[in-house]
């Protein structure tokens, strides 16, 4: 009996390669493993530096274009929102077109649109450029997680996924800090252009380093309804929806803090300049370390306890930001960053372990929730800031983390066999 494209996609892919090939993925310590890890680190860097380079500019947008804090956040929220939608499309396309080329094209096009946003003559033109940038960038995160799940051996997946997430952390930091300094000394338009041009070079480095897929099987038989069936299958999974929700809520909290911390730090009693505020966001360095540490620790100790620990650390950090001391606000942002990247690194790696076939579709659903959290929750946080100040932002965020902790506990208890 002939099997359907849907059934074939849900089975673990059979790879026709020579016997000496490492069909189970590149082993940790091998040359291929190092090249893949470094290339995906660059992909993470480009994704977050392009997406979040506008975050420190939100107060400037509000002042120059005469809009509120929540309105200025559209420069980021539209990008992440369109990216969330594009992830589903890109994940499906990658099953036909392959992983490597799609990621490269996405990075190049997004960098070009970032330069166009820098040259936009008015607010609406800037928003259009940023929206299109987010949409074309969807090909990177949608495919990167699937590529790693296919090409890296199971015992090294946690570390390589953590390194990829570390690349996003480094990109987010470089985008925020670099843009802050360039804006102080030149202009926000020059800053955005610089990020776009830099990431064009990053894209070239990525495609040179990344080996061609060895375990990917091109699937041209899947039609539109087959993709919907695969997504539905993952959504009916007993545990995957909880992982998707954690990614959504944790990312929403993280973006909310970073979106509006700039407004708070540049206003009394802190009165920091853009460059000094940018230095606070160097907390991303701790995210780089935490993501690699968490991925590796999750491989050894189990994902459940590490995930719950990350959520708890982020909550402690939020409470610390309530202090009027710049020192404690900075410590709080550092803890929120460590907690978020710990949780995200573990959760994103867990998707590939829980998914039964069609890992690209499972990854796309996780990232759909992840970036919808960034877009929707990140903007909603602005209304709490405008109406009731930073205390309301913290209460809102703590509530979301409490939900994350409940879901993490359920995952921990119900999947003991998958905890590692």
UniProtKB/TrEMBL annotation:
What PANTHER family does the entry give?
BLL2771 PROTEIN, INNER MEMBRANE TRANSPORT PROTEIN YNFM
The signal sequence is none
Query: Which Pfam families does this UniProt record tie to the protein?
Result: MFS_1
Q: What SUPFAM superfamilies has UniProt attached to this entry? A: MFS general substrate transporter (SSF103473)
| Keyword set, alphabetical order | Cell membrane, Membrane, Transmembrane, Transmembrane helix, Transport
Q: What sections of the protein cross the membrane?
A: 38-61, 67-90, 102-121, 127-149, 161-179, 191-210, 239-258, 278-297, 304-322, 328-352, 364-384, 390-412
**Does Transferase show up as a keyword for this record?**
no
Q: How does it sit in the membrane?
A: Multi-pass membrane protein
- Major facilitator superfamily (MFS) profile domain: residues covered: 32-416
Q: What is its main location?
A: membrane
- What name does this protein carry? YNFM family putative membrane transporter
**Known CDD domains for this protein?**
MFS_NepI_like
- Give the location in the cell: Cell membrane
Family, according to the entry, reads as follows: Belongs to the major facilitator superfamily.
